[in-house]
Specification:
The chain is α/β, with parallel strands linked by helices. The chain is 39% helix and 17% strand. The strands form 4 sheets. A 9-stranded mixed beta sheet has the order 5-6-7-4-3-8-9-12-13. The chain has a 6-stranded parallel beta sheet with strand order 16-15-14-17-18-19, sandwiched between helices.
């Protein structure tokens, strides 16, 4: 399909968006890009006119040269009677070629910028600009306004292989000041640390021009219900998976919506095309004078787009004065989380019913939404407009299974007594206790049509008894249980276009050179020795027992002893020991090879992936893990303990020299880790081999397309 759009370069470009419900911040961005497109077009035309003049002048000079005019002009100049044209020739004879080359280079740059800016077409279509608005904008423009008509095929993609930033020399990079122990630049304690000053990635820009990968012949209506969604509402891997899977299904041509709590901590300006959809009542159970009372909680629904995914955001209406989902973070706000997610589960079903959206698949994630399948089959299917949906449930981690007392479940407006039986959601471990309790995850498994977890090996480990209490439940339901490997969104994690990086790279395109620049940038910024010959190991992790805390501590101390460099980024309830180490033996003043950053920052994590030679993931158990996939995408070799999804994705380089993409150990002891890091260091010393491995791992495909196809087959089988 070909679409023609009028793009006007003027200060009145804001008129494009009059009458359209586009967030102010987004409207401002689109206007700025429209202006840039017009300005770049004008600059390109001027440059090309100059090129024509230079070419014409060169042709005249060549013509004169053939007939001896140059010699005549030279004689005339020697007698001080040269013409002004000859003076021009004298001044430009040595610089003409250089000037032409510079202009050609500038024109190519402008053309590349124009190609990128033309993808504004996609977003102009998204906001459905009316033709009347465009003509009004054009008629109100001043005489100096430049109007261009651009014809663009909506399926056109950006040029493959281009790098966002490719410094020609180190002098082009604005190197950071080393940070103090407090994280501020040295001598500028009132300013932000260097990673917070880096440009941010714009997901809408990354997704511009992206079209369906493979149109399905049987599109389905899919509704995901989740507590997290990257990049805005993300705490862990759950947010990455729901975003990546949701967009993968959308790219296949399915009708996908993701239902998410509208947390107070979300920045509304970062949600594209945010608008209020409807208000509706949700049954909400409470205790009043010792009795169970069901009342209606007025709830607001908003639509928008986050991370390339269409979303519905739900929250109690402002007039309810509820504190549900209020606070400065996704979790840990001023509200009762169990009550909040039980309300959210009921609200999600009420929205699907009252909005008239009758999905083919309702896909729920983790304990927070396990009440959805329970309520759907007991309260909604066949009793409301929801008649055809089947339920898929994905277990991302069995660490938290959602313990719930019978009276707490009443927050849904439904008495928990009907579920608190052994055939449904009763937690057998609490039989005989006072009170006996339910397990929401068990209820989700029992009531769902299909249950998945996030890697084949984790599914096997769980059935073999490594899932605790839930192993028994899953084994009893293993005919509907399977493991499907997660992926990562290759548009969100793209070192060729990542705006955070000081130098971008891709396989076969400045991988070695620009990764070295990223490494030096991180070393300088963190106050480490800027030495490219030292292997740099990074660890980006939640600091909880699951992640192998004792092995991370071992890697820190051994890196200092072995001449490696080590950078840790993370936090969690097991971070106390790392805080002590960061303030004592591995403080800024005591170590120039180790930095322990007990915090989390998406920008800093991206800089670390790009700078790293190796990424350590020594988990005790790991359902899937995305860290090792992102590491490979950014040309870093993972060092992992073989478990769960790590075993499914990382092949040891020494064990398989043709297909190896990292280094693997099997024990949970210090010696197993030490020997694996020593093998990695040995490979690092062979620089030619190591660079070849970096190129290899960066080409490994762990994008969502393959895993999305497996989920599509699962949905089709329902």
């Amino acid at each position: 399909m070909t679409t023609t759009t009028r793009i006007t370069s003027s200060n009145n470009s804001r008129n494009f968006f009059v009458g359209n419900k586009v967030p102010r911040a987004r409207r401002k961005t689109l206007c700025r890009r429209a202006l840039l497109l017009g300005e770049n077009h004008h600059r390109t035309v001027v440059m090309m006119m100059m090129m024509k003049k230079i070419s014409a002048r060169d042709e005249r000079r060549n013509e004169r040269s053939r007939f001896g005019c140059v010699r005549v002009a030279a004689a005339a100049r020697s007698s001080s009677s040269g013409s002004s044209n000859d003076d021009d020739d004298k001044n430009n004879s040595n610089g003409a070629t250089a000037t032409r080359d510079e202009l050609l280079e500038e024109i190519e740059k402008l053309k590349a910028e124009n190609a990128k800016l033309k993808m504004l077409q996609m977003q102009l279509e998204d906001v459905s600009l009316p033709s009347s608005s465009l003509s009004s904008s054009s008629s109100n423009s001043s005489k100096s306004t430049t109007t261009t008509t651009t014809t663009i095929k909506t399926t056109k993609k950006a040029a493959v292989g281009a790098l966002r930033t490719d410094p020609k020399s180190e002098s082009e990079i604005e190197w950071p000041l080393p940070i103090t122990a407090e994280g501020c630049p040295v001598g500028e304690e009132d300013k932000k640390p260097f990673w917070e000053t880096r440009p941010k990635n714009d997901p809408d820009e990354l997704f511009e021009g992206k079209t369906a990968t493979e149109e399905t012949n049987r599109p389905k209506k899919i509704a995901h219900v989740t507590a997290e969604l990257a990049p805005l509402a993300k705490v862990g891997g759950l947010g990455d998976v729901t975003q990546g899977l949701g967009r993968a299904m959308k790219m296949q041509g399915h009708d996908v919506v993701i239902i998410l709590p509208f947390y107070q901590s979300l920045d509304a300006n970062e949600i594209f095309d945010l608008k209020h959809v409807m208000d509706f009542d949700v049954p909400k159970g409470t205790k009043w004078d010792g009795e169970n009372v069901v009342s209606m909680m007025k709830t607001s629904a908003y639509s928008g787009n986050i991370g390339g995914c269409d979303v519905i955001l739900l929250k109690p209406h402002e007039e309810t004065n509820s504190n549900i989902f209020k606070g400065g973070a996704i979790y840990g706000g001023s509200y009762n989380e169990l009550e909040a997610y039980l309300y959210f589960s009921r609200a999600s079903l009420e929205f699907l019913d009252k909005s008239g959206r009758d999905p083919d698949v309702i896909h729920v994630h983790e304990w927070q939404t396990c009440a959805v399948p329970m309520l759907y089959w007991e309260e909604y299917h066949g009793k409301t407009s929801l008649n055809k949906a089947k339920i898929v449930m994905t277990i991302h981690n069995l660490d938290n299974t959602g313990e719930c007392r019978e009276e707490e479940f009443f927050a849904t407006g439904v008495n928990g007594e009907k579920f608190n039986v052994i055939e449904k959601a009763l937690d057998e471990r609490t039989i005989g206790h006072n009170p006996e309790r339910m397990c929401l995850m068990k209820g989700g498994v029992v009531y769902s049509n299909k249950v998945t977890t996030v890697s084949p090996t984790y599914a096997k480990e769980t059935l073999d008894g490594n899932g605790g209490f839930m192993s028994k439940i899953l084994k009893a339901n293993q005919e509907k249980f399977s493991g499907i490997l997660n992926g990562i969104d290759y548009d969100l994690w793209n070192p060729a276009l990542d705006a955070t990086l000081p130098a971008n790279f891709a396989p076969g395109n400045k991988m070695t050179e620009n990764k070295k620049l990223c490494k030096k940038y991180l070393q300088i910024g963190l106050g480490l020795d800027a030495d490219e010959t030292k292997p740099l190991i990074v660890c980006i992790s939640r600091l909880v027992p699951q992640k192998g805390i004792h092995l991370i501590e071992r890697a820190v101390t051994q890196s200092e002893n072995n001449g490696n460099q080590f950078v840790l980024l993370g936090s969690g309830h097991s971070d106390g020991g790392f805080k002590r180490m960061a303030n004592e033996e591995f403080s800024q003043t005591n170590s120039s090879n180790v930095r322990l950053m007990i915090t989390y920052s998406d920008a800093l994590s991206r800089l670390m992936y790009a700078a790293a030679d190796f990424v350590l993931v020594p988990s005790m158990f790991e359902p899937c893990g995305l860290t090792q996939m992102i590491a490979m995408r950014y040309g870093a070799l993972p060092i992992v303990r073989s478990t769960g999804g790590l075993a499914d994705t990382v092949i040891d380089c020494d064990a398989d020299q043709e297909n190896g993409n990292g280094f693997v150990f099997y024990g949970a002891d210090d010696q197993s880790l030490d020997e694996c890091i020593q093998r990695a260091n040995k490979t690092f010393q062979d620089r030619k081999k190591f660079h070849e491995l970096q190129e290899r791992v960066a080409r490994v495909d762990y994008g969502w397309e393959a895993s999305g196809n497996v989920y599509a087959e699962l949905y089709e089988s329902l």
